[in-house]
Amino acid sequence: MKRIISLAIIFVMLSAFSPIRPSAAEDIREPAPTVYKELEILDTRFWSADGGTVSLGSEEEGGLTFSFDSSDEGIVSFCGRFRPEVLSDFTELAFDMESSGRVAEYVITFSTRQEKSSVKHTPTGEESSFFVRLPDEVKDGLYSIRVDAKCESGAPVEIRLRSIIADTAYSYALPEMLNAYSVHSENELTIFEDGIFIRPENNRCSITFNAVKSFESTDRVLSWFTFSGADTGTIRAKVEDEMKNSSVLSSQTINQSGKYSFLSDGAFKTFTVYFESIPDGVTITVHRAGVIKLGEKETSCGNVSSCRWDGKRIVISGTVSNEASVQYSGSKLLVYTIPVSEADSFDLSDYSPAHTQGFSTKFKLSFVPERDHCEYFYKVVLDTEDGLMPIDTLTAPSSGTLAPVAASASSAIHGADAADVFDANFSNVILDVAIGGLCEEEYIYPAQRYMYSGKEYYFNSDVLTQLDSSIRFFDSALTGVYLRLFSDTDGRAFDYSADDTDGLSVLLATVSFLAERYPNLHGFIMGSAVNSDGIMLPEYIQSKARLICAFTEAVKSTVADARAVVPYASDADKDPFLCASMISYYLSYYKCGPIVTMYETSAEESAIAPGMARLFGIPVSFAAQSDGNAVFWRAPADSSPEGLADYYRELCVSGAAAGMHFTAVSVADTDRSDDLYSRLKEMLNGENVIPTRTYGYSASTGDRDFKGTYGIWDFTEAYDTFGWVSGGSFNTPFTASGISGDRVIRAERAESLGGSGILICRTEPSLDLSGLSARVTLTVSSETQASTRVCVVFSGGDTRAEFTATVPCNERVSLLCDLSAYEGAKKTDYAAVVVDGATDAAAELSKIELCSDTLDSEALKARFTTAGDHTYDPLLYATVIIVAAVTVIVFAALLKRQKRAKRIAAREDRDE
After folding, report:
1. 699 phi/psi in degrees, rounded to 5
2. How much is the mean pLDDT over the chain?
């Protein structure tokens, strides 16, 4: 009983006053003592277990034991019915209860004869006691308590319930609290149900928690708390042990979030937080606080400074400490490769060294792992007479580089088709990829074979064809592409775990395959938020961190400057702050490569919202490598175009100011109307913080004479599309005979797609079209429409010019586009033709000519064909490609003939 009461004593107690802030010193009172009442539950006749048994615990353990052979769909349940308990004077129930397996969530239902009410509790660590709110509607006569525990499906479960105690405290609001006998402050302090109120003096104050959690001297401890009242100033923390030895923890800047975490080593008796430079007249309110053991601090005799993949081998560099160099000189250096799935529970005696090397104070170890390097963590040790001495912690491979943030890349969209992305002029697009429909471990349908880690995987050719088309289009339009990987097409799930070796291999094989196939991708996003399941057990979070390490290395080791993006959902019940703190610690512990932290939300909150602001500062505090930050806003389904655009404007402005890699809006669940995209385009074009600009001009349909012309794209006698690709509602372009008899490239509408059809070509290297006009000769054919709108686009990276005209259908027309007023013409990166109109409309592009009033044709041609590094002649490039292809074919045929001749000669020799 004493143990239960000591666990139940907390640092926030019920006050006799209403929960309002004190306005004067005389309002401050001592908190009332906590009152307890233990429920009589220790009788098996009162209890039943759904599909299980109920028994009294052993004399040593006490309490009741509920045993289940297996959990049905991850749920086990038991119920207690007893004499009515009148609990009107109490506020919460303390359960002394623990499970043989991991429980993700408890749902506890209280019943009277007329009323039922349920509360939820999410375990957050190795706890044997937890507190829940006692609902008001059941206080006058509690008849039964039912417990539903969510746990691992199919596994046997045993739950021990030792006691249920009612009390007048409210520690249910502090499920991860610092179990404390008291809190105190040098400042005025009062305790209300909303928290602890502290009045600063001289712009500073402090609060001390007397922790009673038991930690070892080698433990790594995460301490955290939340507060409100001040959004400027600084915070620092200090821990002190039994011997009055103190350690000052990191200093952090106060912002609107009010949520902070600190790392410390070893056991401590008190945890003190100091608030400094607090504005006048502000009262600090501390709401919650907690401590979590993250693991043990390892002793080591050196340091691993780098563990990288050079494309062929793992290369590990580091140093041995001076003391170890003297004591263990002459020992051998060993490297162990530990599978990611076993990295939290490995015993080196179960493994053999992957590499052995002689002693060196500064070492560089190089070797090839048995399987793909992403599937391992690495441990370097000294083989001494005293046994194996570790050099640093277990280390993940960390390849790649930090990708710089471009201001023009601050906007992104998810859930729109290619035409809408292009029309609205977003910098980035996020495409969903379902691995379940893409990758198989055997040949089931037409697929591309890929070897990964010594195993064959097969990637669906139909899915790849669609993805190829989308990525080629966005690459031509200078739109960055992020692939968001899910395990299936429906649930937005990401069912991969570091503990599932086969599933992890599928994920890593998919990342490696896609990164090799699309080397210009900006990055990969892990599908669902890492805190989506709400489980905050350290071992579970550590497994998530190992998955992130492997995922990040698969991305970075294939494309060095691609980004690995890890999303966190802004769910109050699944604390992203606490999850990010724990994950950042483990990423730093494993020396993971740099990640982009993505804050995902569906609520209308500012891009510098409290949760996001603190979330983005966590990696820095924990020494985890950060590749930047991003925001992902899932627009509500009932969003109006104007409301959505207005709110997204706020996100983009603050996101760009904060240097986000991208601020994304997801329109996947909305009504994606033309009005929506026009408003988004107007919004993006009107913000000075986003340098992407669109300039609108009119294209002239009348022809005129120029001093000189040069056909930069001329398809009238060609049989190639010269790098032109399609998007929107157009199918793949092909060469054909046009309406006028000349050869053209033609793009037709796909029957299943609506909206604009787009033809686009990337110009590499960039073209200088300043002072020129472009004459575009084309035909739009349609059986249902007399005329349609055509837009010719020239882009200069962060700017683009759009020349629009209404043209008659089924007639060959020339559109003149005067580029002299367009400042971005000096660096033109692509040209595009956009066709609106009927569902049966098709585009026939004959040629695009550059025209000048000052240069003759020869001088104009020389400008694009004799400028050294800036030479641009698509016909020449096409010829080179064709010649190269023919050369390859010829040499392949000759080689095949030569091999065949050798086989015949060898056969003849055997016959003789």
Report:
1. -95, 135
2. 84
